[in-house]
Amino acid sequence: MDLLQQARAEIDTVDAEMAALFERRMRAVADVVRYKAETGKPVFDAAREAAVLDKNTARITDEALRPYYRAFLSDAMSISRAYQRARLGRDTAAYQGVPGAWSHIALRRLFPFARETACTTWGEVFDAVQNGDAQFGVLPFENSNAGDVSTVLDLLYTHPDIIIARMCDLPIRQDLLGVPGATLETVRTVISHPQALAQSSVFVQQHGFKTSTWGNTADAARHVAELNDPSVAAIASAETAGLYGLQILSAGINADGDNTTRFIVIERAAAAPAMTGEGQRLALLFTARHKPGQLAAALDQIGARGFNMECIKSRPLPHVPFEYYFYVQIVCPAGSTGAGCQTLLDTLTSVCSTLRLLGAFTLDSTEK
Ligand SMILES: O=C(O)C(=O)C[C@]1(C(=O)O)C=C[C@@H](O)C=C1
């Protein structure tokens, strides 16, 4: 037996043991499901997950392996959550757009096992979550080039029962998609959303393609599939190609390679978001009194306690002319705890006119 065969034999033995342990863990999770069905408790428990990760990572003797084990266990709990949600019937996630839209792609990466529901507007996504038709809503929050999605921020402000449960960054990569048999040589016309056409304009000009604008990238892909004409191609995502049976004629044709959209997952809050400190981000919504230095006083408290402010956004208060609210996102410092976060919030409460903890979450990756 050579080294590879030996190693694989060992991996097979370990996998067999882990399969049995996986089933055993999931049987315990099934009991958790019964408990949560009876009590209505939320599936996600940030404090418990942080404790499980810390306790078990400390058991790994090889220090170099610790971050990998942490990720492994984190995945195991993510699978456990997906299983619990499916068993509890709490696994519906809403998004705005059509299948293949960027929000839909973000949803699939975040909730690969969810039941999906498509909405026409961002407001409808909020309604679906608010009235319990969906447990989660996936919405764009900011784009690295185009900036804030202010309407979504305002919807957060006007829905006090809704929290940000998760946040993730999705790199936007545009591909040229054609029907099977199409090649770069057969294509004459390219259709897509104006923004995708603009992002890919260098490539389009180089090839001398004519362009035609479309409502959104996913619909453009669907149209190309329906036309079944090798002279017409769409600019959309690789995922969209899979959905509509198209093939990728050229990958990554957008010139702005670092274009990234930040998505949020919203949830109806049963309780205030659980703060655990280190590794988390806190999202705060507040208003400040009209007195000199009030905003600075709030920001000073954040800095003085070692929290790093990642961003601040200011928006007009709905229905109150020329008054503003602030959205602030802060990173909890290393070594900080839930109690430390609470102390900061208590201090801010005395400095701000109104203060709402909109979310306490980790920044997820959507990379596969
Ligand atoms: O302990 C719980 O409450 C669980 O639901 C189990 C579990 C896990 O798989 O370990 C899963 C989800 C929670 O976020 C925390 C832990």
UniProtKB/TrEMBL annotation:
The record marks 261 as: Essential for prephenate dehydratase activity. Pathway: Metabolic intermediate biosynthesis; prephenate biosynthesis; prephenate from chorismate: step 1/1; Amino-acid biosynthesis; L-phenylalanine biosynthesis; phenylpyruvate from prephenate: step 1/1. GO terms for cellular component: cytoplasm. Its main location: cytoplasm. Its EC number is 4.2.1.51. Pfam families: CM_2 (PF01817), PDT (PF00800). GO terms for molecular function: chorismate mutase activity; prephenate dehydratase activity. Catalyzes the Claisen rearrangement of chorismate to prephenate and the decarboxylation/dehydration of prephenate to phenylpyruvate. This is Bifunctional chorismate mutase/prephenate dehydratase. The lineage of its organism: Bacteria, Bacillati, Bacillota, Clostridia, Eubacteriales.
